[in-house]
Amino acid sequence: MHENFITSTFEPQDLAFLQKVFTTVCAERGLSGDSDAASDLAGQMFQLYQQGIREEKDLQARLRN
Question: What pTM was estimated for this model as a whole?
Fold first, then answer.
């Protein structure tokens, strides 16, 4: 599904995947999508994704910590 290499380019399917994870984690934390905490979360999520964390459950687990 997702390539196993680090890239700074995001394809539409990458962004859709990241949006799904973001929405899920924000809902779990009770965050508004436009809050500072949500912005921090998005930054962490993109960084993890660029580091090669591409499985939904792995991203969610790392973002919950």
Answer: 0.81
